What does this fold into?
Amino acid sequence: MRLAIISDIHSNVDALQAVLADIRASDVQHVVCLGDLVGYHTFPRETLAVLRDSEIRSVHGNHDLMAVGRLPRDDCGPVARKAIRWTQTVLTEEDRHYLASLPSELYPQRSILCVHSAPGDPLVRLRTSGQFYGEYLRIGESDPEVRLCFTGHTHVARAMTITPRGDVLCPLERDITLDPAAFYFVNPGSVGCPRDGDYRAAYAMLDCGAQRLSFRRVNYDPTRVLREDRRHGIRVEFGPFVRRSLRSRTLAAVRRVARLIDVLP
Ligand SMILES: [Fe+2]
Ligand SMILES: [Fe+2]
It folds into this structure.
C-alpha cells in the first residue's frame, strides 16, 4: 500500500490541487491530512470542498479548532489572527460542522499514528531532540505498536529517527528506507504555507510494503491565491519558489544548520 501524507494546507486550494494531481499520478491508495486545513490563505470553502469530495481523512489542527471557536485566537500571531477572523465570516454551517467533526488522531495502520503536532496537543512545536524523545516515550506507553508518527504544524519537512539505542537523529535524505527496529517522527511539511525556504507545496509518501519514505515538492502557480489574500488585507509570509533566489537558498541552508544544532544533545 502507498500512503500520501499532506498537512497544513491553510486554505491554499491551488497548492492542494497541484499536490493531489501529483498524488494521483503516483499510484497512491490512501491520503491522510494532518490538519490546519484553513487559516492564513483565503480559499477555505474551496479547500474544504476538495477535501470532502476527495474523501480525504484528516485530523484537526490548531487553526481548524480556532476557526470553530474551540481554541482561542490569542495563541497565534497577528496575521494568523486576522486570517482566522476573516475565515470565520465565510465558513458555512456545513464547513463548521465538518471542521468540528475532525478527530485528533488517525491510524492508517496499527503501527502508524497521525496527529497535528503531538498526541493530545495540537499546539506544541516539536523541535528539539529532547521533545521528540519525550513524545517517543509517551507514545510507547500508550501505543506500544506504533513505530511511525506523522506530525505537522511546524511547516518544515523533516524526519527524526529514534534508534533502538535511544539516539535521536535527523536524517537529511529526501528518500529514506525505514529501519524496522527504529521509531520515526515524520513531518511532511506544508502544502500551502511552507516555512523551510522552499515555497513549493510539500507532502510525503510512504510505500508501506517497501518501507520507503519520500519527501516530495510540487511546483504550482501561487499568483491567484496571493492576489486574493492581498484583496482581503492578509499578507502571508511567502517567498520565491519556482526559481529559488540566492536569499531563500541561503535562508534554507541556515535553517538546516540551525535544525541540526537543535537536535544535537
Ligand atoms: Fe499550520
Ligand atoms: Fe498548526
Summary: The mean pLDDT is 92. The chain has eight helices and twelve strands. The first strand starts at residue 2 and ends at 6.
